[in-house]
Structures are given as C-alpha cells and as structure tokens.
Prior knowledge:
This protein is α+β, with helices and mostly antiparallel strands and 202 residues long. The chain is built from five helices and eight strands.
Amino acid sequence: MRSSGPSRGKPMAEIVARTERLILRTWEDHDSDRFYEVMNTPAVMRYLGGVQDRATWEAAKERLDGYQRDFGHTFWIVECIADGELLGFCGLKRVNAENAGPIAGDVEIGWRLRESAWGQGIAKEAAIASLDLAFGRFAAPHVVALTVTGNEGSWGLMERLGMTRRKDLDFDDPRFGPELNPTIIYRIEADAWPSARKSALS
C-alpha cells in the first residue's frame, strides 16, 4: 500500500503497518522539518541528551534513512489516521550504540512521540505493530529495547509489552553523562510474543 499525498517526483511513502488509529510509514522528504519542529522539545528529549541543534538532527535522520536502506526497517513515522498529523516515530533498528557488547546488532524497538500524543495508548499501539513486524516479516529471534532508569514511562511500556528486564545486558553509553547512564535493557523472545501480545491488548 502507499500513502496519499504528493510524491514530488519520487515514490510515495510505504505504509508498513496500519492499526485502529495509526499508520506506520516510511519517511518522506518533508517529514524531517515537521518532525524537528514538533519533537525537538525539552520534554520529549529529556532522556535523549536534550534538545538537538539542526546539524545533530540531520545526522540522526541520515542514520534513520540508512537503517531503512540497509535492513528494510527503521523508526518509522507514526501518523494519525483521523487527521494525518505526524505523532512521532516507532519501529525497528539495529543496536549500534558504543559499548553495547552482546546486544550489538540485535533488533531494537524504539519510539518517540510528541507531547500531545502522550497518555493515549498510542505508543503501545504502534509498538505492538512494530513487534508484529519484527517477529513476522523480519523473523527476529528476539527484540531488545533501550532506556534509562529515570524514564519510567518508557520502561513501563516495555513491561506492558511483556519485555523482561535484563540487567546483565546494561551498559554505559559514553555519549551521555551519569544522569543518563547506565543504559538499561529489556528483551523479549520471539516465542514469548504471542502470549505477551494478548496480555498487552487486554
């Protein structure tokens, strides 16, 4: 399927998943400016190193494009079906953080939503769709998620998705100071997902 909207001479975005309220799709050229505008706030970026200058965001966007090119997945745009508004991103990448040790290269799920989308179950809805893709289309043996201790909203969702805390996989990320270290890890195995999915939907 393809999304509606102008292609500007290029193929339109690919819809990779559709849920009750959301579309997860590949990035279009115009998404980068809008994402930076609505997502680069102190609240959203609190546990991600703080607000970004434009050059830092552009480098991050290049990495997102690279994941899609190299692996067929990335942190996809999350769009509201009702009004087409960009809500953030959610999806899959490969762990590439420094010091990641044994989880380097593992399939990682991640999400980032604008403040107006918080508290509505949107992250869980998008994450369930992403895990379906991880264990279905991409045949991942397991999926990890990375966060920090202070980000209770993030690891709380990981637990609601049936992911298990793995202290043995925690690591320090040299990009961040002590307030954002260690990086803590949650993980779920492919064979655990069907029952975890049912619980997450209940």
